[in-house]
Structure formats: structure tokens, C-alpha cells
Known about the structure:
Layout: E1 2-5, E2 8-11, H1 22-26, E3 29-37, E4 40-41, H2 44-57, H3 66-80, E5 85-92, E6 109-115, H4 124-127, E7 129-137, H5 154-165, E8 170-174, E9 180-183, E10 187-192, E11 195-198, H6 209-220, E12 224-227, H7 232-236, E13 240-245, E14 249-256, E15 259-260, H8 268-284
Parallel strand pairs: 7-8, 7-14, 11-12
Antiparallel strand pairs: 1-2, 1-6, 3-4, 3-5, 5-6, 8-9, 10-11, 10-13, 13-14, 14-15
Function: Acts on leucine, isoleucine and valine.
Family: Belongs to the class-IV pyridoxal-phosphate-dependent aminotransferase family.
Cofactor: pyridoxal 5'-phosphate
Amino acid sequence: QWIFLNGEFVTKDNAKISVYDHGFLYGDGVFEGIRVYSGNIFRMKEHMDRLYRSAKSIMLNIPYIQEEFTDLVVKTVERNRHESAYIRIVVSRGVGDLGLDPNNCRGANVVIIVEPLAIFPKHLYETGLEIVTVATRRNRPDVLSPKVKSLNYLNNILVKIEARLANVNEALMLNDQGYVAEGSADNVFIIKDGVFYTPPGYIGALEGITRNAVIDIAREQGYEVKEEPFTRHDVYTADEVFLTGTAAEVIAVVKVDGRPIGNGVPGSYTKHLLEKFRERVVAEGVK
Ligand code: PLP
């Protein structure tokens, strides 16, 4: 396995960063996750655009222009020769002293890792997930925008911890007003009477690239998709629920807070969408 580290390809054992890196000390940095399907990189431009937007928002200078960096990602994928894989890009503020001030840092650390990844066991894609809603709230968009995919993932981690404590694999967090926001690292959709609903960006969620792809695919299939706020009640009473994310892909949810969704098995709209999604990711990706 070859890891891109600041301009060089190194082995896993040699991929090391200083303890003075501000990504490590303070979570100061940004990241991206991208999928490779059958050798094709899915929606690469959207992911790279988001990476640069995240960096700009926190005044982090990525030491490559976007086209250059995109080439480096492609090169790292080629070097690792996986048919299907997950790409993790990390750009941290870099090495500085123990003060918070980013001006003390001597330039970003840039890492690209490419490896196979499955965050949920395979059988759950057939049976569907059981999830819960948790006490952890999505941070408000005016505090630290959830649109920034930053290295500060503590509330997402707390969501995962709460899910594990409830003996399930994933959970949904609400925003500060009680509207459903998203999962720990995935967006949520509900389907009611054949209409797809997903929370709008202003609710406070990451604008998922898988989410946007699913919206495109659903509309192409003739389904109506609405970006509207909804509550836990709407989730409990939905006909179908599913999650989307680069790591999670598209996965049905069959139980929420102990309430079976629909018939308690993955629904027909979700299954249809998953099938179309799988066709598209291969067809659409960039070699
Ligand atoms: N929400 C959060 C908090 C995430 O970290 C992710 C993962 O990337 C998503 C949603 C899903 O976004 P995407 O489909 O772009 O991977």
C-alpha cells in the first residue's frame, strides 16, 4: 500500500506525522472521502470542490492548485491498484508549536490514503439497519458550519458512541431546534407516499455528494424529491428510510428508536434506488 505524504509515496509503516501537527493537537484541518468503483473515481470534482471550500472557510492553504491535487489523487489511486476502494484525503494545518495560532504552523501536511473500506457489515445492505436518535445535536450552522468537513468530528463520534451504547450500528442527530439533521457520517432520506424527503442544507448537515447524486438519480427515475425539514415523528411514520454517504453508500433503515419502518424490511423504492445508484457509480466515474 502506497500512501501519499507531502509529495512522496511512502509505505504504511513510513507514513508518519509529527506530534506537533495541529491536526493532531487541535483537530485543525479538513478531509474528504471519495469512492473508487471498478477503477472509476466517483464525483471526484464535487469532492475536490468541497475540500477546497472547507479549506477556504477555515483559512487553510492547500499547497497545490486544485487540478494538481486532483492529479495526485489519481496517481495515488493508480499506484494502489484496487478495483474498488475508498480514498481518504487529509490536509492539516501542519506542524507548529503548542499555541493555537495557525500562523505558527510551517505549512500544511497533506495525506492521501487509498484502501478498501466497508463501514457496515455486508449483510446489513440486504436486511437494512436498525438505528436510534441520540442526544448529541448537530452544531449550529452559524457556529462552525457543518458544511466544513473539518477534522473536528467529536460530535459525530459521540453519535457513534451513543449508537453503540444502544447496540445499533448508526444513529441520527437532530439540530438544535429538534429537526432531523443527519447520521454520524451520512445523510438521511425518508419516503412518504412515493415522495422522497431529505433535510435542506440550512438544517445543519454536510451537503453530501452521495445525497446529491441520489437526488439526481431519484429525479431521473421520475420520483419527486423535496428538501424539507422534518421531525422524528415523520421518520417514525415514513414508508421507507435510508442513509447515504461515501462510506455507507446507500443503505436502508428498517427500525428507528424501536419503531419498525414500513413493513420492517427494506422498501421497494429504496431497493430500486440502490440498484440505479450501483449502475450509475460505475458508469459515471472518472478513470
Ligand atoms: N454527513 C457527514 C457528517 C459526513 O461526514 C459525511 C461523509 O462524508 C456525509 C454526511 C455524507 O457525505 P458524502 O455523501 O459526501 O460522503
